[in-house]
Design brief:
This protein is of the alpha+beta class. The chain is built from six helices and four strands; from the N terminus they run H-E-H-E-H-E-E-H-H-H. The chain is globular and about 50 Å long. The termini are close together.
Length: 145
Amino acid sequence: MISMTYGYIYVASVAMGANHDQLVKAMTEAEKYNGPSLIIAYAPCINHGIDMAHSQNEEKLAVEAGYWPLYRFNPDLRKEGKNPFQLDSKEPTKDPQELLDNEVRFNCLKKLFSPEAAATLQGRLKEDLKERYARLKKLNDNEIL
């Protein structure tokens, strides 16, 4: 978001397992853009505590749960009179709890603190995810940046 406020940096959020076509489009646009480009990719690692043979499925789940939104910000679109921000994610359809339950980094909160504290933190995360999607939707619908 900070990079997008400068107005001259191409920015994309991608996840290959969620949407291969969006990833290729973002990489192509970033390469074509005459200026700095930033592509941020969701890539689960072994420290997430998942079976890495299923990392592509985990990426898809992260997007479907709203944890990892897919978008592209292309400043060149302003020259065409278009909104430079394009939200490529659909509204989340999965419960974020499914993602939280899959990954050790979230499950360890129960051991580090308490099950109650973990539930509180995870509840806050779910609310934050809803609010973030609403903000991104507004960016997509109106040129705010």
